[in-house]
Amino acid sequence: MQRSVVLVVLLLAACQPAGGGTPQAASSPAATTARANLYQCEGCEGALEADPATLTNAARIGPGIDMGEPLVIDGIVYQNNGKAPAAGVIIYAYQTNADGLYGNGSPKTESSRRHGRLRGWVKTGADGRYHFDTIKPAPYPNDTIPAHIHLTVLEPGKRPYWIDDIVFDGEFGVTDAYRRSVTNQGGNGIVRAIRRPNQHWHVQRDIVLERHPSEESIQ
Question: Max alpha carbon distance in the chain (Å)?
Fold first, then answer.
């Protein structure tokens, strides 16, 4: 138990920028947002809660007892060149239920309380593929934001960071204004939900890893 606590503390410490440094300015607002996200990612500590040794490339988001339309998420995680698959990448996902609420979380951690019961983790294999089984989330009640699934990426030896949410093309809230607001961090998160013959919804959300400041030339 003591060893586990020490491990979590060390992992959380690794999420802080070395020396309190500030990332260099990037060449576009979207790039600036992406770079800042690598350093400041409130809530990303949820990605650190799973034991990487226990993860596979497939998981269920939540315990599978929530009522809702079944949804399958598949994807491939690519290196930042957009071509080579990325192995050993943890993806942490959390979402609302069919009422648009983050409900029934565990009191064990802050992420458990804030993100609710519908959350899960996978780790990509050599082919970069991942798979989640879940239910289709609903939009927040009395809001204009589309239904979405939050995704956090944790690359080996790096800090966790957000990528663009999964949202459903052609559905509530995915307006022209919304499309202009996204940064395409981690690739395009606006995906088409297709209903399969078994009545399950299916989406394909491929991910392109972000270039980290240490991997970029100084602007």
Answer: 54
